[in-house]
């Protein structure tokens, strides 16, 4: 097993089992064995091939061709072992409702999961509180309490703590929400996004007004000019990266189980829309490990998709859920989210620049292949084990539709930590830099892109001086002595135009059941109009949401809550 120095560091710090004195008591090999064995336990509910599947799972994981989300790596085999990364909890408009959910969120956080919440049901600031005769403090004030609780809980937990906070664009407190993170001290444990409705987009297009609604009464609470609110959104996002947008009506049109509820939020990094009390287990295929001799090994990829789908479906059966309501919901829809990492690496190995037309075409081809293969695998499981229990009334409950074991099969996660473990580029992001200093836990490491290093040696343009320059600059644009073809191939995130970032997100979204995690990177000199254009383009191109980040912008929260920071 080939693990990089960084991978070993992260595994030792957070993933390998420790004894009570904090000494590491398992090797990475044993860790993969623990995961394979405990997930394959689920096979015993369905047949007598647990040993066979344990071996298949072990082989897939230990070769780093596929990894499940962090909670599975950390907690598999433990008792209780909470294995899912993504949750959404509803927040009701009452004191017991708000604080019961906070308690439940604390349990999820403690178990290594991240939670998304919509605060849209909370009555607005200065609205009446009948029981006390007082006035309400509004959703943003309660988000601050959730944020503080996260600070306290994360100190005892395994991870940094990650939340998504959503407010509908038609909530009366929308402007306060849009501006809240301009103060860097506020909501540092939250990514925030606006739930954008079609009605709002229509008003924005027509340069008109739209209606605000008081969620307590369901009645109108005034009107705002769509363009003015958009200006505020763009100003905040330009300055801090928040808020992102979630196109909520689009999410609900793609809801596979409308009879079981509707979407009001996603998980913390935005890739997984979920119903209230729903959870999802994610896993990512390492695309770089599926290139053989300069071409994609689709046979191997297809086999790995099938094993990964089975692994994720098994994970649901051996999971210890933090709440009975979550267990009921997850076991009702059995959502899994298989995605990819190492996409930028795959493109380098195939000699295709990230922002080339061929790359967008290939993105569709690869993701379509994975979606189809994952649905086939889910159908095969349904034949063995039955369709997901909420199948009746789902969009699949119709003639000529596949009979699936899982209401969704595909999601593209950020893979903040997984990509470090697998030593590949993260998710579907371009390379961020070719050389950088990185703080992994407490030590500083200098990293040079391994493919670039190899190519430089093979093609004879390697020299110590040249590499020092690459290290200083992080990209190749102004470095002399490097063939232009190589410069084009290794373009980094900030050299790629925002519209090409969005095009890539849209290409993957087309064949992804859930959503796609992607950061639309903008150079520091980008203007507010560039942010506005990116937000509108994401809507136009069929993305389910968008997050931008302007390089060097002040930011309280990282989009990715990686364990390596
Ligand atoms: P990983 O690589 O560790 O598996 P990702 O970066 O792919 O994680 O994130 C996937 C999801 O895992 C996020 O959208 C979120 O739901 C959850 N998550 C990520 N980081 C954290 C964290 N620090 N605390 C809690 N949940 C997290």
TrEMBL record:
It comes from Geotalea uraniireducens (strain Rf4) (Geobacter uraniireducens). Residues 84-548 form the Ribonucleotide reductase large subunit C-terminal domain. Residues 1-79 form the Ribonucleotide reductase large subunit N-terminal domain. Belongs to the ribonucleoside diphosphate reductase class-2 family. GO terms for biological process: deoxyribonucleotide biosynthetic process; DNA biosynthetic process. The keyword Oxidoreductase applies. This is Vitamin B12-dependent ribonucleotide reductase. It is an enzyme of class 1 (oxidoreductase). CDD domains: RNR_II_dimer (cd02888). Keywords: ATP-binding, Cobalamin, Cobalt, Deoxyribonucleotide synthesis, Disulfide bond, DNA synthesis, Nucleotide-binding, Oxidoreductase. It comes from the Bacteria.
